[in-house]
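User: Fold this; tokens only.

Assistant: Input:
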Amino acid sequence: MKKPKSFLGSNLKHLRERRKKTQSDTAETLNVTRAKINAFENGVNSNPTVVDLGKFSEHYKISVDSLLWVNLKRLTELQIRNLESGNDEYVMGTKIRVLATTVYSNNKENIEIVPIKAKAGYVSGIERSKIRVVKKGEILMRNGDPSDNLFYVVKGCLRSYIISSKGKEHVFQFAPEDWIIGARESQLNNGIAILNIDAIEDSEVKILQINSMDKINYLDKESLLDMNNKLLKRNYAHQKRIIQLLSSSAQERYTEFIKIYPNLVQRVPQKMIASYLGITPEGLSRVRKELVRKNKIIS
């Protein structure tokens, strides 16, 4: 599969110049070297870390997806402001909106451009998918395996995670009822999954293949909004977590975890929650005790 072109370097330069800032100004704000900013802008560093992407995303108020895959130089000032406000759909012309990039079975990329009137019906076929019963501990996807699946959780809870070279698990996402989890990013990795996904409870899921998303159903507006909200919820949780890991205390990260996953504290093993937060189980225990002492959570 041909690797999609990234606009990260040109976008970072464009956004910096749009603010009338020098590379030195930006480097000082982000607490990095000017050489690092220069390397990104000129494409010398083409493999940014999650931390780097999080810093740029927070600084410019542009989502990581847009920084990577949208050519911001082709957008108007109003469209960029729209991105900064959190709307990742950008208008081309007056009556056409780009909705999604898909990959067909012949490995050709396709950008779906749909009139605004038809936009309300643009949605994948999750509603048609059959329910699959998954037992606790069952692995649905392994890092390194070919995969183009998204999983919609009807009942139960899934998680995605990676395993370090030392055999330690690092939780990336939880997906309880009404959440979506999966290998959407595998499209950028030659169709190879970069995460593991398993069930941490007996679960029921619906499966949608990413490479089959060219089979579009035109449904009602409510169905579109429902699907859009599910994907936004997933993306919001990812970006919020990156920002929290960069700038927040363990207490703040745990408090935010409760807001995002209000029903998981009693359902998920504490060691998994600690892994998600980037702290030890002992550290999580201290955080919980301190929050109980402050009457901010119930024991």
